């Protein structure tokens, strides 16, 4: 049962997948802003959407499609530039019109196409331009175009984010799992905090795919924070086309299911970490582990409070070993905590233990916090609950990007 | 029943109050960092402390004192530079030692002095220097020194924050309520999100004072957010020395109680707004009203989500009428909301109504958001619940201050 990360893997690395892109000028000029993903065979689908009460038109549309058909999805159309959120009935009609155009162009059945949008809230989707883009993208579908798709869906992202793994199933067969994600701001659970598509050539039952996706999201996309804002559009979609020819994976508890799950968690964690590393203005990826909590849920609660704290995040930007802000955030997290039991490390450096500051080398701690990868471990000393989350620092650049984004 | 804001009012404007300050060099040099407030008569006291599970030594100490004596407090000692938090038993002993020194120096009874600390977490309070400062401050106690006290307790504050009102009671007598506050970062409910002392010469029963303080805090300090971080040290203290000679106010429901309450709310709201206006790096004071919620609590929940959103706050810094971020924050607030019923105004400009964007003059909206005082009103269209909260924008300067604060 092995899971191998592939060099230069991407969303169309699994068998039977192709992608095409187009430049529609929805908001950006001089770049692609539309990606079309197509599977040669019908896919089992599972999806997780934002917990925000205000949701994009694409989520209204996709939920309706998946309620009718979660076993034979063939295509996904994704645009950047307009979020198609807060656009009312007109927005939902636009989502449907573009999905129908994909089905017409590729001669696919009705309700076999899902759509996703990302960009400015309140901007209507220009259907005419998207329709032209669908024509372009569908003429250039290719299994090598996964990286182009990852690039086309970017907004404030500075780089495409993608990966793929090959998993050896217990019976010796190999399957692939690939994925791409966009997201750099308005990123905070619950749940999937961006747009992400995970593809696989494995054959998986819908219920098992859904269970696997929830398990993986809880250990990846639900463990990251960039700014504490939960978007209206967040979508994580998993599509399994069965092209690998493996015996159908019916349960995640089976040996095959566990192997598939390990690969899916690997892909989702890598994509989620890439989102944080490319967080708006981010200069550091911070991995924060809380252990010794009364439960895993409590550990997660404590860790996310630290991950979200602007004061912790600005201190990390400054490379300032200001551990008091971490202890403070643990304190207001709502987790069960007794400061007299807490032990906090920055990298290998103990900074606070059992209620009192620890003498430490300021320069060594500064260096730990100034590296591209920062590790913090807080042991609450209360029990056996653990959680690991990822966050980034908060820089001048975050403010610049978000003060200027729309206008 | 009138409440008049006094020109240049401060914490020792009420009768029977004096203040003194000293420069102890706890962290800062070339400025005062210790304030001593003294009442000539014993005071009824009420206090609200942070909800953080990790609390400053001064809160441990004050809670113990108030449990023994909430009816004859005489003095408050406040230092800036060290938060005396995460300092264990040594920190609590330091708090007690400095309180005892005040009592010794001023010949006050044991347990008549409260202490407060603000500054860096994890820094031990240098008791020797504070003791020297107590000697200096106690030699210069004066009713005109309230403004000096407000200045001595500042940390990253750019200006002292204080006010006083005169209230005419129904029977014709006048009382005064004064206050000061420090706080510019790590400011978010619940509850009192800074150090604040409110003094009055009114005679008020302890239970009535406590009820009045909670009522006023819920409409002032619990309605502001600068960065979403709840400090370990937040303290709001109300002290009533009865020097005005009014008949004892026994209940806030009485006519006298209502007059006192109106004055207390006025003082607390002014101080809370001053905290936001002087928020770290802030360039705007944003007043946000949510109405039409299913309850006042739900309105408060929705408003605070907007007030806390880094994306809303950076958009305001840029003067960008990016209303989608406001609707998004309302959506993830947890409040009951249907986007098809929401109507949002920036100043007089309607920007979103009943699920769809409203055409508006970009320049007019930009001007609304670029003024020092910004007003936003969101009507959820669900019921009669209302709440008003105050927040500030999020600027480069916030990042600079907090990336550099400690080192």
What does the model show?
2 copies of one chain form a homodimer. Chain A has 407 residues and is of the alpha+beta class. The first copy, chain A, folds into 2 domains: 2-277, L-amino peptidase D-ALA esterase/amidase (4-Layer Sandwich), CATH 3.60.70.12; 285-404, Ubiquitin-like (UB roll) (Roll). Helix content of chain A is 33%, strand content 27%. Chain A has 11 helices and 16 strands. The first copy, chain A, has helices spanning 57-68, 88-106, 127-139, 146-152, 206-218, 255-277, 296-308, 310-317, 323-332, 362-370, 396-404; strands at 2-5, 17-22, 34-49, 73-82, 113-120, 161-168, 174-182, 195-200, 224-225, 235-240, 285-293, 343-346, 349-353, 356-357, 373-379, 385-392. In chain A, strands 1, 2, 3, 4, 5, 6, 7, 8 and 10 form a 9-stranded mixed beta sheet that branches. A 7-stranded mixed beta sheet of chain A has the order 9-16-11-15-12-13-14. In chain A, β4, α2 and β5 (113-120) form a beta-alpha-beta unit. In chain A, α1 packs across α2 (88-106) and α7 (296-308) crosses α9 (323-332). The longest helix of chain A has 23 residues, at 255-277. The radius of gyration of chain A is 22 Å and the shape is globular. Chain A starts with a strand and ends with a helix. Mean pLDDT of chain A is 90; it is low at 188-193. At the A-B interface, α2, α8, α9, β14 and α11 of A face α2, α8, α9, β14 and α11 of B.
